[in-house]
């Protein structure tokens, strides 16, 4: 393994520039896919440097597009780079990179939301959860339209220790709209505090490491872009199933400008809402007049622990959906109105 601080032993040979490649293969960013190309290799190099020491690492890149970050990863002297690209237009350009880096780049035409990475890398890379992170990294310039569902999917995988996290506490370095990046790292009391803040921070150490101005991308998006690094925690700050935590957090933040008891009340059927919400907040030791943005991860831990006990007492409670109850109530009222009209009332 190359010693830290030494120059990488592998460098890509001279290749067409990214702009030349885009022209050669007549590539255009698809607006409907929220694609924005990052062509400045100084910035792609910076993203890769911020991911950590990648010498002899195994890297999974999501959404490589024309291959800007791909080039920077290959120049970091990785053992292997696996890229998953959904858009067939980019495959020939990526194949050119593969030919220039024999045995280093593996290309999969597929969807990152469904791709199974569990068996993509050697078994001997796996580490115990308590150990240091494995020599496996996830890096990607994510299309805006998939960034939030993808990070939620991966956070659930962190919770279950499956998918990319079968190898251990795999680190991720990903791009998001700046607003989303700010939500991911927002602290208690911040106006950016949101569902994403809690879901990310109870499972990971999250850092917004730098911002890329929108004009660095082609085409230029209307927003700047934040680069965020995630390192899964050895011990999650909330020790409950992901779906339960997600349900509590989603309900709390659905009325983010109101007192927290308003959203948390939606966890319970209307007939018992007042009594059960009061009990939840009392046992969790939470002031009902706090707003959702004022709740800490510890507050949510207490809420989730108490809600879990309430679900254990009433096995049907977790399946309750207030929107479904509301829909049935409206449908029932509409049927009553229809019957009245039929009777001439």
From TrEMBL:
<dbReference type="InterPro" id="IPR020598">
    <property type="entry name" value="rRNA_Ade_methylase_Trfase_N"/>
</dbReference>
<dbReference type="GO" id="GO:1904047">
    <property type="term" value="F:S-adenosyl-L-methionine binding"/>
</dbReference>
<keyword id="KW-0238">DNA-binding</keyword>
<keyword id="KW-0496">Mitochondrion</keyword>
<dbReference type="Pfam" id="PF00398">
    <property type="entry name" value="RrnaAD"/>
</dbReference>
<keyword id="KW-0694">RNA-binding</keyword>
<feature type="domain" description="Ribosomal RNA adenine methylase transferase N-terminal">
    <location>
        <begin position="43"/>
        <end position="234"/>
    </location>
</feature>
<dbReference type="GO" id="GO:0006391">
    <property type="term" value="P:transcription initiation at mitochondrial promoter"/>
</dbReference>
<feature type="binding site">
    <location>
        <position position="36"/>
    </location>
    <ligand>
        <name>S-adenosyl-L-methionine</name>
    </ligand>
</feature>
<dbReference type="GO" id="GO:0000179">
    <property type="term" value="F:rRNA (adenine-N6,N6-)-dimethyltransferase activity"/>
</dbReference>
<keyword id="KW-0949">S-adenosyl-L-methionine</keyword>
<dbReference type="InterPro" id="IPR020596">
    <property type="entry name" value="rRNA_Ade_Mease_Trfase_CS"/>
</dbReference>
<feature type="binding site">
    <location>
        <position position="63"/>
    </location>
    <ligand>
        <name>S-adenosyl-L-methionine</name>
    </ligand>
</feature>
<feature type="binding site">
    <location>
        <position position="141"/>
    </location>
    <ligand>
        <name>S-adenosyl-L-methionine</name>
    </ligand>
</feature>
<keyword id="KW-0804">Transcription</keyword>
<dbReference type="InterPro" id="IPR001737">
    <property type="entry name" value="KsgA/Erm"/>
</dbReference>
<comment type="similarity">
    <text>Belongs to the class I-like SAM-binding methyltransferase superfamily. rRNA adenine N(6)-methyltransferase family. KsgA subfamily.</text>
</comment>
<dbReference type="InterPro" id="IPR029063">
    <property type="entry name" value="SAM-dependent_MTases_sf"/>
</dbReference>
<feature type="binding site">
    <location>
        <position position="85"/>
    </location>
    <ligand>
        <name>S-adenosyl-L-methionine</name>
    </ligand>
</feature>
<dbReference type="GO" id="GO:0003723">
    <property type="term" value="F:RNA binding"/>
</dbReference>
<dbReference type="GO" id="GO:0034246">
    <property type="term" value="F:mitochondrial transcription factor activity"/>
</dbReference>
<feature type="binding site">
    <location>
        <position position="38"/>
    </location>
    <ligand>
        <name>S-adenosyl-L-methionine</name>
    </ligand>
</feature>
<protein>
    <recommendedName>
        <fullName>rRNA adenine N(6)-methyltransferase</fullName>
        <ecNumber>2.1.1.-</ecNumber>
    </recommendedName>
</protein>
<keyword id="KW-0698">rRNA processing</keyword>
<keyword id="KW-0808">Transferase</keyword>
<dbReference type="GO" id="GO:0003677">
    <property type="term" value="F:DNA binding"/>
</dbReference>
<dbReference type="GO" id="GO:0042645">
    <property type="term" value="C:mitochondrial nucleoid"/>
</dbReference>
<dbReference type="InterPro" id="IPR011530">
    <property type="entry name" value="rRNA_adenine_dimethylase"/>
</dbReference>
<dbReference type="InterPro" id="IPR023165">
    <property type="entry name" value="rRNA_Ade_diMease-like_C"/>
</dbReference>
<feature type="binding site">
    <location>
        <position position="111"/>
    </location>
    <ligand>
        <name>S-adenosyl-L-methionine</name>
    </ligand>
</feature>
<keyword id="KW-0809">Transit peptide</keyword>
<keyword id="KW-0805">Transcription regulation</keyword>
<keyword id="KW-0489">Methyltransferase</keyword>
């Amino acid at each position: 393994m190359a010693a830290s601080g030494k120059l990488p032993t592998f460098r890509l040979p001279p290749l067409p520039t990214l702009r030349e490649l885009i022209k050669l293969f007549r590539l255009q960013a698809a607006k409907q896919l929220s694609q924005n190309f990052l062509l400045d290799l100084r910035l792609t190099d910076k993203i890769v440097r911020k991911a950590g020491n990648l010498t002899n690492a195994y890297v999974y890149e999501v959404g490589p597009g024309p291959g800007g970050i791909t080039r920077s990863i290959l120049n970091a002297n990785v053992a292997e780079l696996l890229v998953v690209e959904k858009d067939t237009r980019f495959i020939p350009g990526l194949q050119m990179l593969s030919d220039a880096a024999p045995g280093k780049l593996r290309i999969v035409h597929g969807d990152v939301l469904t791709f199974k990475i569990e068996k993509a890398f050697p078994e001997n890379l796996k580490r115990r959860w308590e150990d240091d992170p494995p020599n496996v990294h996830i890096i990607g310039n994510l299309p805006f339209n998939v960034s939030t569902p993808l990070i939620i999917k991966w956070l659930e995988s962190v919770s279950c220790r499956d998918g990319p996290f079968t190898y251990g506490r795999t680190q991720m370095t990903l791009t998001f709209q700046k607003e989303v990046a700010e939500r991911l790292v927002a602290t208690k009391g911040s106006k950016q505090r949101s569902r994403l803040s809690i879901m990310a921070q109870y499972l990971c150490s999250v850092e917004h490491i730098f911002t890329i101005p929108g004009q660095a991308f082609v085409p230029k998006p209307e927003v700047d872009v934040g680069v965020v690094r995630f390192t899964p925690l050895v011990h999650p700050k909330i020790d409950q199933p992901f779906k339960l935590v997600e349900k509590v957090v989603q309900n709390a933040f659905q009325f983010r400008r109101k007192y927290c008891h308003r959203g948390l009340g939606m966890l319970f059927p209307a007939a018992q809402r007042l009594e059960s919400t009061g009990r939840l907040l009392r046992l969790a030791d939470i002031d009902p007049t706090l707003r959702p943005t004022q709740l800490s991860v510890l507050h949510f831990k207490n809420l989730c622990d108490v809600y879990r006990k309430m679900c254990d007492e009433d096995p049907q409670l977790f399946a309750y959906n207030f929107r479904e109850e509301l829909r049935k109530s409206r449908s029932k009222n509409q049927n009553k109105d229809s019957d009245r009209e039929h009777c001439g009332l």
